[in-house]
Design goal:
The protein has 188 residues and is mainly beta. Helix content is 0%, strand content 22%. A six-stranded parallel sheet has the order 2-4-6-8-10-12, with no helix packed on it. It has a four-stranded parallel sheet with strand order 1-3-5-7, with no helix packed on it. Strands 9-11-13-14 form a four-stranded parallel sheet, with no helix packed on it. The model has no long low-confidence stretch (mean pLDDT 90).
Length: 188
């Protein structure tokens, strides 16, 4: 059982590296440097991280529920190691690198105006999610549920329509070309 340690607080420029086994509810983290921070078994509910560097944070067993990341850097996050039952996140203007979203459910989530690179989405249920104006570089989509996703103005993604569910997903030109790039087709 968690004891609420922090509720309705604003944390600015925090550099605390040991935040494991704590509970944060309705908190806002502004301009914090959490590189390598221990968030193992920590519970975040209704929190906002804004302009924070959360690279290489340890998140095993963390409960992340209704959390929004705005303008943050998340490198080396393995979302498959967090508590998947309550997982609910949105990203706006974030830089997500070398992360793993494989085999988790993230229906109706936002990844808008993000820069995502070297990230694995294999087996992920992202149905109904919004990827508006997100740039993907070397990202892996395999056996994903991408039905009704919005990829308008998204760039650089490579998604094989034979190995992913795409019904009613929205694409625009030239981004839609990322659906055929694996087939070696030359389009002039």
């Amino acid at each position: 059982m968690y004891e609420i340690e922090n509720i309705d607080k604003i944390f600015t420029k925090s550099k605390d590296k040991h935040l494991d086994k704590k509970k944060f509810e309705d908190c806002r983290f502004l301009n914090c440097n959490f590189v390598g921070t221990d968030f193992r078994d920590t519970y975040f509910i209704d929190c906002i991280f804004e302009n924070c560097d959360l690279s290489l944070a340890k998140i095993n067993g963390a409960k992340i529920h209704r959390v929004e990341f705005i303008g943050c850097k998340l490198a080396g996050w393995n979302f498959s190691r967090v508590n998947k039952i309550l997982l609910s996140v949105d990203f706006d203007k974030c830089k997500i690198q070398q992360s793993d979203f494989s085999d988790i459910k993230l229906k109706n989530k936002k990844f808008i105006h993000c820069d995502v690179s070297d990230t694995d989405f294999s087996g992920c249920d992202l149905s109904g999610s919004n990827f508006h104006k997100t740039k993907f570089k070397n990202c892996f989509f395999q056996n994903c549920d991408l039905r009704e996703c919005d990829f308008s103005k998204a760039e650089d993604f490579v998604i094989n329509p034979l190995s992913n569910k795409l019904r009613k997903a929205k694409f625009d030109y030239p981004g839609v070309l990322g659906l055929v790039s694996e087939f070696g087709i030359i389009i002039k």
